[in-house]
Amino acid sequence: MTRPTSEPRRRFVHRLPTRLRQHWKLPALLMVATVALTAAFGQTRIRPYVTGEVTVLAAPITENIAGTVDLFDPGVPHSLIVELTDAEYREMLSAYVRDGAKKWVSADITLDGTVIRDVAVRLKGNSTLMGLRGDGPPGPPGPGGPGKPPMPDEFFKTMMSMAASAEDPTSLPLLISFDENAAGRAYQGLTELSVRPGAPVLNEALALSLTADSGQPTQRYTYATYTLNGQRTTRLLLEHPDDGYANALFDSPGYLYKADAESRLEFAGPDQSAYAHQFTQINAVGSGNLQPIVDFAAWLQHADQDEFDAHLTDWVDVDSLARYLATQNLLVNGDDMGGPGQNYYLWYDLTAKRFSVISWDLNLAMVGDPETAPQDKVELKIPEGAEPPPGADGKRPPLGGNLLKDKFLASTAWAPTYDEKYAQLYRQLFADGHAHARLDGIAARVPLSEGLDEPKLHEAVASMHRWLDARVAALEPAAQR
Known about the structure:
The protein is α+β, with helices and mostly antiparallel strands. The protein has helices at residues 7-13, 18-22, 25-41, 86-99, 154-161, 202-213, 243-247, 291-302, 305-315, 318-330, 403-410, 415-429, 434-443, 454-480; strands at residues 63-65, 79-83, 105-111, 114-123, 174-177, 185-187, 192-195, 221-228, 231-239, 254-259, 279-281, 344-349, 354-359. The chain has 14 helices and 13 strands.
């Protein structure tokens, strides 16, 4: 979209963070104070500690855009149009290619007919973006490069279908922020919205639906026709957890933490700042309260199996953990809290003083081996002889692992709890054709577009039904015993 000649000046101003533009006096005062402290204390190390409970507050929403229809109403069609200038598009891509930075740029969008100007947009994801930097999952000629081992399973095929390409703007996974450029602005209570890669990604929509059917916290989603700079396709739009999401999860107050890809839930010492690149606090931002994470990681790291078995309930809602892990196995999701992306959130209940695990990023669920047994370790595997592609920092990431998950599944004391939850969830989600019926309901509301025609959708639905048949065939004999 070509903008009027008066636009560039406004765009230049928006290269400064909005909150800095609106509240420049406070940062200036803090800068002066920082210089004074540096002069006074020199090289003295200051450690951030929280000495008391911090009130959990959501950032105020001062402009809540109502829209025309409920974004997550499955009974009506939805559409999203994103308009980026060529300069903003190139800047977003070049920043990531240059150093892995996911830079916010400005765009105008039209969501279900409602025009919203000057929203912030950036790239989102890790593995799906590798193709932009010349990295890709090992495979045949293409994004993976010639001469690499062929892809051995459905995981790598799925990865290839979601691979981002600079030549196809609609292939880019995006995060849309309504409040980055306008503090206090939201759309139907949402401050952020995720545009997922690939079409029709029935596996992710079905995994989200089944998780919700089980009564576990998850995220809302909707399908929409999606247009970016004139190219049109079908995309899954996903609620992105913000402080409003966090504060509505449970009746009691708590903190929500997102695990970053580098996190392994390992103890890194008593200094909270050492965990800044492992976990991001979603609500009560600015409180500096990572102390629950620090304390839990310290106990988890030093507890032997006997200590773990005896005192896990002091730290974790064990029923919730067992349900989460059983669900991830049922869905054959190798990219969960123990996967390379560390895709999960931790909820710390301030009343119970215990953690729960919240599922996140289920785009690789229900594409693995359907014959995976309840006790099998579900993991993403790299083909023999191939190395994992480097991450955004150029380093080879570990292939996963999570101390909490590993210790729990290795525990004989907690095995009955896991087995009980597994059997309950199987009966609830897979028995009597529940998953098949849920899939058909989802497929019926996927819109067709230039990027998703009816034959492609039909084959995706049939493939998903075949996977479900194989999954039930593998698990039903054990369920009958």
